[in-house]
């Protein structure tokens, strides 16, 4: 019965939004510490004590707190980070950690043609990285909750992860290390679960970052290491939002990944550090 009600409501919503519409959603991000302590403490080679872990978590939490804006129409969107002045480090430690999302930069999405273009700067050069939107694989649930003025429904997605290491790292796996990211990489699960809460009341298959593909706007998103929370939605503002695709020569995601691996390898070789680590996600 709940499914019938949901489908009926979705059909009515589609009728309401049949005309052109636009909007702006604001998202707040924060670090997810699910299983974090267990992953670090389970590494017998770890030299991190409780005080160091506390400082690292505080720095990670501060570095992950950001604000993003999703400006959208029915078929296009632009996802950007709020520009802020550099704030002084007011934590109890001298550790500073900065997080870049998978779409660090201006992210344009075309829902009709199923692709994205990320405009971002790397090594003092601007790239336009074009990729397919991987939005399939969601399992819909009848579980719901209220988020602000909207009824949101739960959806989950499982992503397979394959790790590949350089020959140098394979040889060094038995060495003791305080490399926190290395420890998390080695302890990462094979199956990563993503949970989204979307609302059919705004019937567009969009959401924060590169997420989407659901019968409604994603208001809350949980990834293995990050949480996205929608704090404000403005629909059909007096001045309609116009989304424009970045212009210029594009490079595919695969070409960009290969270029970055080559560049990082060159940098590591120059610095005498031969250890490389890459993680490939298969949808």
How are the SSEs placed, and which strands pair?
Elements lengths: L1 H15 L5 E10 L4 H6 L8 H15 L1 E8 L2 E6 L24 E5 L4 E8 L2 E8 L6 E9 L2 E16 L1 H6 L7 H8 L3 E9 L17 E6 L3 E10 L15 E2 H18 L6 E6 L1
Parallel strand pairs: 6-12
Antiparallel strand pairs: 1-2, 1-11, 2-3, 3-4, 4-5, 5-6, 7-8, 8-9, 8-13, 9-10, 10-11
Task: Give a description of the structure.
By secondary structure, the protein is α+β, with helices and mostly antiparallel strands. It is built from 6 helices and 13 strands. It has helices spanning 2-16, 36-41, 50-64, 167-172, 180-187, 253-270; strands at 22-31, 66-73, 76-81, 106-110, 115-122, 125-132, 139-147, 150-165, 191-199, 217-222, 226-235, 251-252, 277-282. Strands 1, 2, 3, 4, 5, 6, 7, 8, 9, 10, 11, 12 and 13 form a 13-stranded mixed sheet that branches. A hairpin with a 3-residue loop joins strand 10 (217-222) and strand 11 (226-235). It is globular. Residues 1-16, 164-185 and 273-283 have low confidence and may be disordered.
């Amino acid at each position: 019965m709940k499914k019938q009600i949901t489908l009926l409501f979705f059909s009515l919503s589609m009728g309401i939004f049949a005309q052109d519409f636009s909007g702006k959603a604001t998202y707040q991000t924060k670090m997810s510490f699910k299983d974090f302590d267990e992953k670090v403490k389970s590494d017998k080679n770890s030299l991190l004590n409780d005080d160091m872990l506390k400082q690292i978590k505080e720095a990670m939490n501060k570095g992950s707190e950001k604000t993003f804006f999703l400006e959208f129409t029915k078929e296009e969107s632009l996802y950007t980070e709020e520009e802020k002045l550099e704030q002084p480090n007011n934590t109890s430690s001298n550790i500073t950690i900065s997080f870049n999302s998978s779409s660090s930069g201006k992210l344009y999405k075309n829902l009709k043609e199923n692709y994205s273009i990320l405009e971002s700067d790397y090594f003092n050069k601007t790239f336009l990285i074009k990729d397919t939107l991987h939005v399939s694989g969601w399992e819909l649930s009848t579980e719901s909750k209220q988020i602000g003025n909207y009824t949101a429904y739960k959806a989950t997605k499982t992503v397979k992860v394959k790790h590949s290491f350089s020959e140098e790292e394979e040889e060094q796996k038995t060495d003791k290390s305080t490399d926190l990211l290395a420890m998390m990489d080695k302890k990462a699960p094979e199956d990563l679960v993503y949970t989204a809460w979307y609302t059919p009341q705004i019937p567009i298959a969009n959401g924060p970052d590169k997420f989407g593909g659901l019968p409604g706007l994603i208001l809350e998103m949980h990834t293995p290491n990050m949480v996205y929370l929608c704090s404000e939605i403005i629909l059909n503002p007096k001045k309609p939002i116009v989304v424009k695709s970045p212009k210029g020569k594009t490079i595919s995601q695969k070409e960009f990944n290969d270029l970055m691996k080559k560049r990082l390898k060159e940098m590591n070789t120059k610095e005498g550090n031969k250890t490389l680590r890459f993680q490939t996600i298969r949808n």
